[in-house]
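Continuing from the previous page...

OK, I double-checked the sequence for XdhC family protein against my notes and this is the correct one:
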Amino acid sequence: MQHLDLQVIDQALTWSREGETVWLCTVLATFGSSPRAPGAWMAVTRDGRHLGSLSGGCVEDDFIKRLAEGQFEQPAVVIRYGDADDAQGGHIALPCGGILEVLVERLPATPDIREHLGTLKATLEGHRQLMRHVDIHAGTRYFSDDTTLGPRVVWPSEVSAPHRLKMRLAPARRLIIAGISPVSSACASFAATLGFEVIVCDPDEAACQAFDVPGVTVKAQLPSQYIAANGCHGATAIVALTHDPRIDDLAMMEAVRTPAFYIGVMGSKRTSTARAERLIRSGGLTEEQVERLHMPIGLALGSMTPAEIALAIMGDIVRVQYGKATNEL
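Thanks. Re-ran it with the corrected sequence; updated C-alpha cells here:
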C-alpha cells in the first residue's frame, strides 16, 4: 500500500510536469478535535482536482471553491479553519469543534518547483530524512539534513521569526513484522490503518497463504533474510512476535544493524532477560546493540488479548516516532 503522503506528492509532481500550478496545503496545527494530524497534505489544481485531505470535507470544499474564485495567489499563507470569526478561514465552524491552521503554498510549474517536489518524493521513498523550511513572508523554501525524531511540524522558537516554519520529512513509515501469530494479524491491521507500509515475513508458506490482512505485503521467507537483503530506512519499525527464538532472535540480530527507529520483541521480563544474555553470548551482539531493543515490547497497558498487545505495540511505536517519553502527553 502506497502511503497517502507519497501519493499526494507524486500526484503534485505529475501535475507540475504537465504544466499545472499546484497548491500544496499542509496542516500545521490542530486545536481540539481534528480528523487530520499536523503534517497532513492536500494537493489541489485550479480546476479543483485534488488528492489528500485536511478535514472531513468541509474545509476541502471551501478551499477549492475559493481557489476557483482566484484566491490564494500569494506564494505562501497560513489560514485558520474552525474559528467562525476568522474571515480568512471562511467563517467555517468544523463539525468536530476543532480548529485547523493550514499552510497554503502556491507552486508554479517551474523547474525549481519540480526539483523541490522531486526531493520530497525521494525522501518519502526512503532516500534520506530531511527538514523542510518554509519562509511564509518571502515565499521561499529549502531543505536541510535531519536525523531527529519528533513532531512533523516544528513551530519556530524565535519570537522574531514566527513566519519561518520547519517540517520533518522522512520515508513513508514502514513496519516489518517478523513471524506470523495472532498478535501479528492484529498488529498488521492496526499499522495499516495508521498508514504504515506493512511487510510480514515468515518461512511457513502455508501460514503466509492463510494470512489475510488487506493492504499488507507477505513474504514467505525468514525475517532475518528479508531484513538483511532489503535493508531498512530510518522510518522503519521492526517487531518480532512469535515467541520462537529461531525467528525472533535472528530477526533482532539483523535489525540492530539497520537504522530502524524502533526494534522490539515480544516476551515476558524473564524471557527478555534470557534473550538479552543469549544475543550477547551466542549472537555476538554488544550491550549497546541489545539496549536498542524494546523488550518486553510495547506500552505497559496490562494487555492480555492479541488485539490489546498489538495496541500496546503500535502505541509505543508511535510514541517513539514522535520523540515522546512514556509519561509525556
